[in-house]
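Diaminopimelate decarboxylase
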Amino acid sequence: MSVFTYRDGTLHAEHLDLSQAAEQFGTPLYVYSRKALEQHFLQYQQALGDCPGMICYAVKANSNLAVLNVLARQGAGFDIVSQGELERVIAAGGDPQRIVFSGVGKQAAEMRRALELGVHCFNVESEAELERLSQVATEMDCSAPVSLRINPDVDAQTHPYISTGLKDNKFGIAIDDAVRIYQKAAALPGLTIKGVDCHIGSQLTDIAPFLDALDRLLLLIDELSAQGITIEHLDIGGGLGVTYQDEQPTSIGDFVSAVKQRLAGRSLALMFEPGRSISANAGVFLTRVEYLKLNQHKNFAIIDGAMNDLIRPSLYSAWQDIKPVAEHSDAPARCYDVVGPVCETGDFLGKDRTLAIADGDLLAVMSAGAYGFVMASNYNTRGRPAEVMVDGDQAHLVRQREGIVEQFANEQQLP
Ligand SMILES: Cc1ncc(COP(=O)(O)O)c(C=O)c1O
Ligand SMILES: N[C@@H](CCCC[NH3+])C(=O)O
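Structure:
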């Protein structure tokens, strides 16, 4: 049940009228719901139940400090891919011992910082990275907890840009090389083998590819055990999809239960790294109509938000629902391309949308809480939007709008 619902003719986030938030904080604006974040996390936590393991929220989906803090307070772990994400988790009150460090290109300095803080595990993605981690940990006179991220060569049946578990993708260690590289990990100094990890892609609506990957990982774990290498945890990654339009993804509860069932009888802790399924439908992007441009063949609603604020439609042709915040407009319904002010033909948030709108109307782009603000840029020297968190009937500013003047404060002219 969504926390974004119409009440008295206007779209609300929990108990807050979104037109009030737009008045108070200006547009474009990201709005997140604390309640929705908590509910989604709780669904994972409850489904995991007393099975040992951890839900490590994928920080890349939405790294706002208030979002991380809401999840940290619920006992979330975190999946990070950079020192920047690591520092944000710590600043938001996250527990370093509940952090897993993923990513194909970890630098030595990032490894050092993660070892200093004592992260739970490094998800190592190549033999070269394993050697570097062994060297860094040895120099620091400690042992790095490791999992190898396995590329199981499974088709996640998602957009090619966000499929990560095929042998043509840059991610992970080919499953055929896994035993050899685990043996190497066991032999190298400064490493402690903890787990097996995989992440096959994002926005998966069917769980069959997860289960295929899982079966391959379980065979690998058996083979490792036969070689005397004990695995404590299995990390199945993130990737569960959400409803943007009419997708019907497996529910969080059914997904976790299906994975748990496959593991029954084994003494393995179970880890998940969900991003989108926690934050996407906990956020909306508010934008105002600047102009309506009615051409002979095409109508455009020109808005104050753009591809630099929310790039998913431009980058992946992703469809996100666009709703007028006030239902009442007397304007005639017309078919519009909803476009921003950026100088790119690809700058659109929606195409061929039937909307009854007038200049100045407020629109909400739905399901914008994941891979929204985090992918925003300053293209066209636009400041990035503010972010607010709704808690009941209150909205708290959790990141200020970026002023366009400060954008060049760190730059120098040639002497
Ligand atoms: C290693 C890793 N873990 C977790 C995630 C989170 O994925 P999602 O937001 O689809 O749950 C990603 C992104 O796809 C990822 O690359
Ligand atoms: N940015 C992508 C998801 C990337 C997943 C990260 N590995 C999206 O918006 O759908």
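The radius of gyration is 23 Å.
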